[in-house]
Each structure stands twice: as structure tokens, then as C-alpha cells.
What does this fold into?
Amino acid sequence: MSKAKHLLRLIRRTNDCCPMHSQNYGLSNSHVRKEYALEMACSSIRYGPGVTEEVGMDFENMGAKKIAVITDKNLAVLPPVIKAVQAIEKCGLEYEVFDNVRVEPTDSSFIECIEFARKANPDAFLAVGGGSVMDTAKAANLYNAYPEADFLDFVNAPVGRGLPVTRTLSPLIAIPTTAGTGSETTGVSVFDYEPLKAKTGIANRAIRPTLGIVDPENILTMPERVTAYSGFDVLCHAIESYTALPYTERGPAPENPKLRPAYQGSNPLSDVWSRHACYITAKYFKRAVKDPEDYEARQNMHLASAMAGVGFGNAGVHLCHGLSYSVSGLNREYRAENYPKEKKLIPHGLSVCITAPAVFAATADSSLDRHAEIAEILGGKPVRKEDAGKALPEVLREYLHDLDVPDGLGALGYSDEDIPNLVAGALPQKRVLCISPIDATAEPIAEIYSNSMKNY
It folds into this structure.
């Protein structure tokens, strides 16, 4: 059986559940009570130049005795990790370092780190790196609290079982070294599930970091392409969460508050963070990419990443992210500049933004006022509500073009012949597709992929 057919079989088998909830909830319909409440949850955030040097005292204040330091091989010899480890040593605490995190992690790379954690037996975790590092540390912390668990127990359905997390995890401090994922604020951990060549993840508030340390000194050496693609991740986090299905339209309401999903749909609390992240991105994103010495721009994009993280960490993302996972997972030959050369890789931010113009052209009618507002913020000129469906895609194409993003899926090696497999890889992403503001079935998804083959 082909992987695409296997994915479609999983979808048919679970078409009565909404895996974004990581529980077996039925999808919304007229016979069930829709959601009536929203819940705001995020990590504590500390921001400021040099705050990395406080992390040893943080662990000491938490009563930690042994810390598992999670990072990757490139960062292990760079200042962010060196400063963090020195801070731990200064407080006389024991630690072990795992530096084999994979960029765009997989189930096997997660499992390697989980096994390290179970052997090291720490009572606290420190993640120093980008989204891949922070997501890996979240998984290691989770499964370290469940030594008997099978790996798929907490993975979102339909790929995994989506079991609830009922145990208290160890403290996790996250120090981001990119301005993009916002993973330091969220209870989401994403990875490539190699048996199906499909991206999935774990979504539960219990795995979010205890503290996110946002130190702008840690992103000063971020390469140009990493700055661009992580910045587009910030932008899509903000726009998707602001245009997601309203939380009161999601259903059914959970039977118990502990079952309320992390991704709830657009809501008044998340709106504040997502909208402001768009303002900051409009002002500083292009500057941060084009001038690596522009400290003000990079500092503000780091803040925008955390703000968008608070927004989407409670509202969720939808189609740009839902469709991105098969774009990165089915990559044949593409290698991105400024990323590991030995690995075929479509960076996460690139896979997300490449469909953004087509996505927001498709979703505009669901909330013309919100789409027009974002187009105004990003484009810097008034937009009539009735023009939102053209205006927002146009301004996004301008950003993509100005920041040298490849010209659509075709430039990444895809063609119309790949659309069935891309669709098959996107459909299981119910964690995010459940809060799409439009119908997220095979036909509209295929049309978005088709319209994304060329953007300029």
C-alpha cells in the first residue's frame, strides 16, 4: 500500500474525530453544543539582553539538581549554549548535554533524545536553540515522565493515540536562538513521522516550557536565510491565528475543562497578541533580513516571535501550516541556503509561507474585515473590506518577492502531478485543519496547492 493511500485510509478511519484536540471529539455540527469558553495559557517570558546568564539561578530557585541541556551540534560551540552552561556551572548544578537534535526533527530523532533523558534521569530540562531544539526537549520531558509509554501514545490522532497528559512534568526552560517559531511559549511539538513521510506532533498545554528566556543577544549571528524563513513563520503564525475559525464556532464543547484544546480558534485574547505581532513584523521584518547589523530590527523580531507564539499558542494556526507539512515531508532534492548542506531540506518557514498568498485568497470571504486589516498593516495603505481577497495575497507576494523566497512550489521541485500526494499528506493535519475558517477537504486544499505552484 502506498503511503498516500495509507494516509487516506487513516483519515477515513478517523473521520469522526478532531485530532487537533488530541482527544476523540466529534466535529462540530448543529446537534452538539459549541464551545462557550476560552482559556489563555502560555509560558512565563523573560526578555532582555543578557538574561541567558540568569538561567543557572532559575534552576537553583526551582530546586533542580541535575539539568538535561538539549541543543544541536552547531549551537553547542556557540555563545548561547556556552553562556547557559556557564550559568549552570556557576550555581554548582549538575548537567548533561544532548547535542544531536536534528533540524526538522523526526520520530527517530525524538526517540534518541527521549532515551538520553531516561538514562540521564534529570529533574529539569534546558532547551537552547530554534524550534527543532525546543520541540525535541518538550518531547523528551514528556516521555521522561512516562517511562512506560509507547511513542505514539501522545502523538496527535490519526497518526497517534492522542492520550491526555495527566502527570506533572519536570521544569523546562527554553532559550530561543531564532526569531520565528515561538515554541518557547506553546504546548506544541512538531516532527516528521518517517513511516508515513508526514508531519504530525504533540499538542498539550502540559508540555509548554515553564519559562521562555528571550535574549536578543542570542540571534545576532542568525544567517540571512534563517532570518527570512523564521520571520515568515512569525508572520504566518500571526495571520493564521487572527483569521482562524472563531472559538465559539468550534465544537463540541469539551465535557471537562482539562480536555479543552490548546488550539481553540481565534479569540479576543489571542487577537491582541497576533495583531500586534503583525505591526512589529511590518516595521522590522525586511530590515532584519536585509541588514544583519540592524540590532533594533532583530531585537523586535525576537519579540514579535514570542508575541505571535502567545497568540497562536491559544488560537492555533490553520491552512498555511496544515499544508506545509507535506511540502517539507515530500521534498525530493531541495536544499536551502544557510542550512545544513548535507541534508535535503525545505525549512519550516519556507514550507509555510510558500502557499500563503493562495491560502488567504481562499479564506478572505470568511472574515473580510480581518483580512483587510492585516493587508493594511502589512502594506501600509488603506484597504477596502471588499478588496481583501486581492489585497492581502498581493502584499504577501510583495514580501515573498522582496525577501527572495523561491517562486512557488514549482521552484521547490513540485509539479501538478505531485498534488494528490501533497493533499494526502495535508489531510491528516486535523490538529490545525479543524480551525480552518473554510472547508479544509481535499478539493479546496488541492486548489490551494495548484495556485501556489508559481507566486510571481
User: Anything to note?
Assistant: The longest strand covers residues 124-129. Confidence is low (pLDDT under 50) at residues 10-29.
